[in-house]
Write a structure and sequence with these properties.
The chain is an alpha/beta fold and about 240 residues long. The chain has one domain (about 10-110, about 165-239): Alpha/Beta hydrolase fold, catalytic domain (Rossmann fold), CATH 3.40.50.1820. It is about 35% helix and about 20% strand. It is built from eleven helices and nine strands. The chain has helices spanning about 25-30, 45-60, 70-80, 105-110, 115-120, 145, 155-160, 170, 200-205, 220-225, 225-239, and strands at about 10-15, 35-40, 65-70, 85-95, 120-125, 130-140, 165, 185-190, 210-215. It has a six-stranded parallel sheet with strand order 2-1-3-4-8-9, with helices on both faces. The chain has a three-stranded antiparallel sheet with strand order 5-6-7. The longest helix is centred in the N-terminal third of the chain and has 13 residues, at about 45-60. The radius of gyration is 16 Å and the shape is globular.
């Protein structure tokens, strides 16, 4: 493929209960096709602050980019891309695609099928004002079946041990913008997803008029099927 300056940089944003290493297979595949890739570290503290951080990452990228979000990362890119003329496309991977005011928890509960709630455990963490907040983990023994049912067990167990907790406030925060209204969108839907029901994914993708691909995969599709994920990103980057 061309290595001209107009070739977009791919910016990957992970979601809750994951970290940037969840994109490793996707990064390898994209780099093999000569794409520049940034796998950003999503803070997972609050939707507005997380989006502001990712927006600052975009500001540091030279030229156009394609912004990709997994899970809660979809909410983050939806807000972060607002007003960013360099974002050529938004790609949602088993992700939330909120409208203005909608939260991840609201969208999860819009349709039946998620079993995430009973598998999580809360923990408290200190806030700068001296109060405490609540963050959530998936219990390690339940993580493979809940999050990564089609990932090799040994890999899923490593993912469970290294998962990044998400602040409950981040999942409760409503989106302040919906960049998909102005930016072409693509969505990979996972029909065996136990975190975000596929009915919810379909509803959001259809509302956003996203180019949509469905696969019989778990929520951890970027780990289980990096080639499929990369194919959709390359399609978005080629437009």
């Amino acid at each position: 493929m061309s290595t001209e300056a107009t070739t977009p940089t791919i910016v990957l944003v992970h979601g809750a209960f994951a970290d940037s290493s969840s994109w490793n297979g996707v990064v390898e595949t994209l780099r093999a096709q000569s794409y520049s890739v940034v796998a950003a570290a999503n803070p997972l503290r609050g939707l507005d602050s997380d989006a502001a951080y990712i927006a600052s990452v975009l500001d540091d990228v030279d030229g156009p980019c394609v912004l990709v979000g997994h899970s809660y990362g979809g909410s983050v890119i939806t807000v972060a891309a607002a007003g960013k003329s360099t974002v050529r496309a938004l790609v949602y991977i088993a992700a939330f695609i909120p409208a203005e005011g909608e939260s991840a928890l609201e969208l999860t509960d819009k349709f039946p099928g998620s079993t995430l709630g009973p598998t999580t455990r809360p923990a408290n963490y200190p806030l700068p004002d001296g109060t405490t907040g609540t963050e959530l983990y998936i219990r390690q023994d339940e993580f493979p079946a809940q999050f990564a049912g089609d990932v090799p067990v040994a890999t899923a167990e490593l993912m469970a041990a290294t998962q990044r907790p998400v602040a409950l406030a981040a999942l409760q925060g409503g989106a302040s913008a919906a960049a998909w209204r102005d930016i072409p969108s693509y969505a990979l839907l996972t029909t065996e997803d136990k975190n975000i029901p596929v009915a919810a994914q379909r509803f959001m993708a259809e509302r956003a008029s996203a180019h949509t691909v469905e696969v019989p995969g778990s929520h951890a599709v970027s780990v289980a099927m990096p080639g499929v994920v990369s194919d959709l990103i390359v399609l978005a980057a080629s437009k």
